[in-house]
Design a protein that fits this description.
693 residues; ABC transporter involved in vitamin B12 uptake, BtuC; globular; disordered N terminus
């Protein structure tokens, strides 16, 4: 009997020991890799500092110049990379475990954006804060943002919903912060560059200050590790085991926000390390189950985060010249890695369900449609009059009449010659983005799709920014061409990778987010490296500003918009059929692939033309079509005109508000629409969650 019971235990214990030994070997490999990257990172820079020079500097044998290079710059940079990578890896692992969501991280939970805004507000007030106080401000902002995203998306409610909520809030918070940068350029000097994330340091003060926070955060996460593991069984099962579910979640989020705030305060936001590091450990957990437990997952994720940060810094300084690499933030490289990660996850992972259910079929009478359209036309006329009359210089209707007849004075003519093109740019851009959103939502059958979320606007912005920063004197035709090229490339990537399986919502949204993230990182790279004058010009343009627009600038947008409206009206029945699903169009003999490609191409052209004319304007392509369907139903013969009017009214209102509220200072229309659109987008997510439950 004894032989029968003990015989199976021998191989079992041997296998367990083997797994433990394998996990220890993997951990040792990570430690050795971190040590190797640290040595290489110290040796890289504009001045030669090999192992011999480093040893002499540490032992006090080097001359003052070599010692200052190593001790004051190289070593602090390396240790900052180690600490930031470890902190972000730990925070990402903890957030993913407690939310049961593989896309939870300081980036997707808008922790970095919340910290950015909080520090931006503090900087705009002109108050100089010590590092500890700055970290407290960043912690408060990051914690508030994470609470909003988790509350809006719901814990365990799906990957796409979390990404959508976090991205939307990030857009809104970043828009407010960039508005502060434009309004208070002296007080917030250097804040934009800091937001790109750089591990460069001057001395060990910041590193030594951050070290205790890392120890406290790691100790706290390890203390509650068993409770967090229990949450993976479900809330009810965890409560049955005596785990305080709410307290565990709150404690984990607070510790993660504290760690993220410390990293942000020291080096700025280093993007997507907290997302990618736990993903690598999840792959290892398939072979070594111990890594799936929080007590082992968190330390190994910390090591993986260090590898990502130091590896990105080493690769950057290897591929780019030493003089140039000093100006390139490490966060740009990690953001590009995170963008690729999102795209790979989307294309290889299975679709986990809809991010939002389709709009309910609504039937509205012709009288309702006519009433809504007439009301919007009246509002638009009033808005045009107000936009022309209001601004830093207020005019009368008589001035406008005299200007139209060529009888106005010099000052009135100057004001109207510059103001009227701005008004037209806002109206046309709003209408173009609204029509683009209508087409994209119909083809993808995704009510949360829009040019910005799909990465199309980001691609157009990247193309235009490259032209602005490299050819500052480029004209409207060149700007439109660059925006078209960027939008076309982004759309080929997004829609090409999402086409497999019929534009499933998760795949489409995640690929779009990845492309948008990559575009933002590359835009930041060009802005940081360019001449400061061109950087300011690019930032102003990215805020959705209509400043300096002339009538020739609007010609490409006007042509594309007229063509788009004509196609949408003529092909309205086909657009209705495409939006219904896969089966109905095929039964009626409609070439679904060809129709989709045509409508998507038109949406891309409209988005690019709008970006070229008025910069990046967020959420219009989401809000206008969605509101139009809510008002007049789903038939596109009614949705298209109402959506056009709503888009024009929305951007026109944002433009006049940005020009008048804080005159003579101005805010870009894109910043205003982001502030308006973010709450609306989050409300849609909350409503759709209720519809799913």
């Amino acid at each position: 009997m004894a032989v029968t019971t003990t015989a199976p235990s021998a191989p079992t214990s041997t296998a367990a020991a083997s797994r433990k030994g394998g996990a220890a070997a993997v951990t040792a490999v990570f430690v050795l890799l971190v040590a190797a990257l640290a040595v290489v990172d110290i040796a890289q820079g504009t001045a030669h500092a090999g192992p011999a020079e480093v040893w002499k500097a540490l032992t006090g044998q080097a001359d003052q110049a070599d010692a200052s290079v190593v001790v004051a710059s190289r070593l602090p940079r390396m240790f900052a990379g180690v600490l930031v990578g470890a902190v972000l890896g730990m925070a990402g692992a903890a957030l993913q475990a407690v939310s049961r969501n593989v896309l939870a991280s300081p980036d997707t939970l808008a922790v970095n954006a919340g910290s950015y805004l909080a520090l931006g507000i503090a900087a705009a007030t002109g108050v100089s804060l010590p590092m500890i106080a700055s970290s407290g401000v960043a912690f408060a902002g990051g914690l508030a943002a994470a609470a909003i995203v988790l509350g809006m998306s719901g814990l365990g409610a799906g990957t796409v919903r979390l990404v959508l909520a976090g991205t939307a809030l990030t857009l809104g918070l970043t828009a407010v912060t960039e508005g502060l940068i434009l309004l208070f350029p002296e007080e917030t000097h250097g804040l934009y560059d800091w937001n790109q994330g750089s591990i460069a340091q001057n001395g060990f003060d910041g590193v030594l200050w951050m070290l205790p926070l890392l120890v406290v955060g790691l100790a706290g996460l390890l203390l509650i590790a068993r409770r967090v593991d229990a949450l993976a069984l479900g809330d009810d099962a965890a409560r049955g085991l005596g785990v305080p579910v709410r307290a565990t979640r709150v404690t984990t989020v607070v510790l993660s926000a504290l760690l993220s705030a410390a990293a942000v305060t020291l080096c700025g936001p280093i993007g997507f390390v907290g997302l990618c590091a736990p993903a690598v450990v999840r792959v290892l957990a398939r072979y070594h189950r111990g890594f799936a437990r929080v007590r082992q997952n968190v330390p190994v994720s910390a090591l993986t985060g260090v590898v990502l940060v130091l590896g990105s810094d080493v690769v950057l300084r290897t591929l780019v010249s030493a003089d140039t690499s000093v100006s390139v933030p490490t966060g740009v490289v990690t953001s590009l890695v995170g963008a690729v990660f999102l795209i790979v996850l989307a294309t290889r992972g299975r679709d986990l369900g809809a991010a939002s259910p389709p709009d309910r079929l609504r039937i509205r009478s012709r009288a309702v449609f006519l009433t809504v359209a007439a009301t919007l036309v009246a509002v638009l006329i009033g808005l045009i009059i107000a936009s022309v009359l209001l601004g830093d210089a207020k005019l009368l209707l008589g001035d406008v009449v005299n200007w139209a007849q060529g009888n106005a004075g010099r000052s009135v003519s100057y004001v109207l010659d510059t103001r009227v093109p701005r008004v037209l740019a806002a109206l046309l851009a709003g209408a173009g983005l609204a029509l683009a959103g209508t087409l994209i939502q119909a083809v993808t059958r995704n009510p949360l799709a829009e040019p910005g979320v799909m990465g199309v606007s980001g691609g157009a912005a990247l193309g235009a920014v490259i032209l602005v920063t490299t050819v500052p004197m480029a004209g409207p035709t060149g700007m439109a061409g660059a925006a078209f090229a960027g939008a076309a490339l982004a759309s080929v990537i997004v829609f090409g990778l999402s086409a497999r399986g019929g534009f499933q919502q998760n795949r489409l949204v995640l690929v779009g987010m990845g492309v948008a993230t990559a575009s933002t990182a590359l835009i930041s790279l060009f802005i940081v490296l360019t001449d400061p004058f061109n950087a300011t010009k690019a930032l102003t343009w990215l805020s959705g500003s209509t400043y300096g627009r002339t009538l020739p600038d609007l010609l490409p947008l006007a042509v594309v918009l007229v063509a788009g409206v004509a196609v949408a009206v003529v092909r309205r029945t086909e657009l209705d059929l495409v939006s219904l699903g896969e089966d109905t169009p095929r039964l009626l003999g409609l070439g679904l692939s060809r129709s989709r490609l045509g409508f998507l191409a038109l949406g891309v052209l409209l988005s690019a033309a709008a970006v070229a004319a008025a910069g990046t304007i967020a959420f219009v392509g989401l809000v206008a079509p969605h509101a139009a369907r809510a008002l007049v139903g789903r038939r596109h013969v009614r949705v298209v005109p109402v959506s056009l009017l709503l888009g024009a009214v929305l951007v026109g209102t944002a433009d006049v508000v940005g020009r008048t509220v804080i005159a003579p200072a101005q805010l870009g229309a894109g910043l205003v629409t982001a502030v308006i659109g973010t709450p609306y987008f989050l409300w849609l997510l909350v409503r759709s969650r209720g519809a799913n439950t």
